[in-house]
Design goal:
about 500 residues; alpha/beta; Rossmann fold; 2 domains; nine-stranded mixed β-sheet; 14 helices; 24 strands; elongated
Length: about 500
């Protein structure tokens, strides 16, 4: 704790990155931001300088690759003004047409380029400096030894001047650039990943930050108008709250009894079954019940709000009224444009705003946003742990492959959920009906019975009495072998 108090930090102008860096960059050191063209290095560097201007500091941008007009045009695309930032545009000697054929030795060209930087820094005495980009210095140096020597000279020059330096490297040189990592005080790597379908995904990692227990691993980020938004990876253990594990009841006694009295705070429930079995409606029922004592958030990957609200109205559930009253947040999402980190950030934002229940519909589409199966399991584990620590009631919906016969889940997350509710189709008396059962519940005693599950026009969800005359429910082909009077009536008026 004492070391943290003594650190003199320069905020980067990016809240998410500062969280990863445990406050920002320590002043007076040389840092490296590396990444391929288009990764956002210049945008991040300008955010760093603009934050300095807001703090009343002097800022200098030395560019060896882009022109000043290009920088200002890029800044305007983000709605920024570069007023207050000094821009020094250096043209290496080898690219000057007047000197071509006269001066060629790389030592002279590189030495004069470095000297121009030194002279400008001595004159302007900036508090923050960006050098864009080291690729040009590397090309002028021609060999690794000379390049490293010049970077060491830069580091020695800035030592003791109180100037925080950020150097950019676009990694376009085929030669590995790891020799820089041992020289600089910290390394931030930006990475772009092209997906088979959808937008480019971006993530960053901090490869090194001397003397700081920074947040390691990959962190998603996006480039939007206004700059880069970084989504730090979630660490559930950092979020703990005291709460009473009170049950949330749906208002349908038979359903709550099936679940051992309802859904308790700080627990997660997995609703699984074939498509159309009524999983989303069941989740909406509990979410509307949550709005009577607080707020609920429904993250919908699959269904549009208009379709869901019309179906809910047909069942007598006032989804539209709760949304209008802002006690029910319906958040539509697209898995092709949403990174896992951004999704987690949206969930955290709602929880911080006071949401007591979260529904994720569905995991099938969330999987599409993160093709790496193992990474999905780790993300979901951390997210569910976070929601549990915050006392949130969580419902996760996962559709099984297939409608009738043997069905399979796309991913086994059953060990993570506190409760598992299984919905199934079955045939009886020439009709397709639905059955509901609870496979597990960590929060308390639950019924092991199988009940009939109905969605009825105007009266909502109906759960019948336990039906013992079932065979083969868990195989995916339930067979009813009892009498018709054991079944609920009115199934023909169901609303899907």
């Amino acid at each position: 704790m004492l070391d943290e108090i003594k650190r003199d930090l320069a905020a980067t102008g990016n809240v998410g990155l500062d969280e990863i860096l445990c406050g920002g960059l320590e002043r007076g050191h040389l840092y490296l931001i590396e990444g391929t063209p288009g990764a956002g290095k210049t945008t991040l560097a300008l955010q760093f300088l603009l934050e300095g201007i807001r703090s009343g500091e002097r800022a200098l941008y030395v560019t060896l690759s882009e022109t000043e007009s290009e920088l200002r045009k890029m800044a305007r695309s983000h709605g920024w003004s570069l007023d207050g930032i000094s821009i020094m545009e250096i043209v290496p000697l080898e690219s000057s047409t007047e000197l071509q054929g006269i001066v060629h030795p790389s030592e002279i060209e590189l030495g004069q380029t470095i000297q121009q930087i030194f002279d400008t820094v001595k004159e302007q005495r900036p508090d923050r400096l960006v050098i864009d980009a080291l690729t040009e210095v590397r090309l002028l140096a021609e060999d690794r030894f000379n390049y490293r020597r010049q970077i060491l000279a830069l580091k020695r020059f800035f030592h003791g001047r109180g100037c925080t330096v950020v150097a950019l490297d676009d990694l376009t040189d085929a030669a590995p650039g790891l020799q820089l990592h041992s020289i600089v005080h910290g390394v931030i790597s930006l990475e772009q990943r092209k997906m088979e379908y959808g937008v480019v995904r971006r993530r960053l990692s901090v490869g090194k930050l001397r003397g700081v227990d920074y947040r390691s691993g990959f962190h998603d980020y996006v480039i939007r108008r206004g700059g880069i938004i970084v989504y730090p990876s979630l660490v559930a253990s950092l979020h703990n709250e005291e709460f009473e594990p009170n049950p949330l009841v749906s208002g349908v006694p038979a359903l709550d009894n099936l679940l051992g009295g309802g859904l308790r705070r700080g627990t997660s429930t997995l609703l699984t079954g074939p498509s159309g079995a009524g999983k989303t409606t069941l989740a909406i029922l509990y979410a509307l019940a949550a709005t009577k004592r607080g707020r609920a958030a429904f993250f919908a990957f699959d269904e549009h709000y208009r379709t869901a609200s019309e179906r809910a109205a047909g069942l007598g559930l006032d989804l539209a009224g709760s949304v209008e009253a802002k006690s029910f947040q319906w958040i539509g999402l697209s898995p092709t444009t949403l990174s896992p980190g951004e999704f987690v950030s949206k969930v955290q934002r709602e929880v911080d705003a006071g949401v007591e229940m979260v529904v994720i519909d569905s995991l099938n589409s969330y999987i599409a946003s993160m093709p790496e199966e193992q990474a999905l399991i780790l993300h979901m584990h951390e997210l569910l742990s976070y929601l549990g620590n915050k006392g949130v009631v969580t419902i996760i919906i996962m559709a099984q492959h297939g409608l009738i016969g043997e069905t399979q889940a796309p991913l086994d997350l059953s060990f993570m959920a506190d409760s598992i509710v299984l919905l199934r189709y079955f045939e009886a008396e020439g009709q397709v009906r639905k059955a509901i059962s609870v496979l597990k519940s960590r929060s308390g005693k639950h019924e092991s019975a199988i009940r009939e599950y109905q969605l009825q026009s105007g009266s909502g969800v109906n759960v019948g009495q336990p039906i013992k005359e079932f065979q083969g429910v868990l195989t995916g082909v339930p067979v009813f072998v009892g009498h018709a009077n054991q079944l609920a009536s009115g199934n023909g008026k169901g609303v899907e």
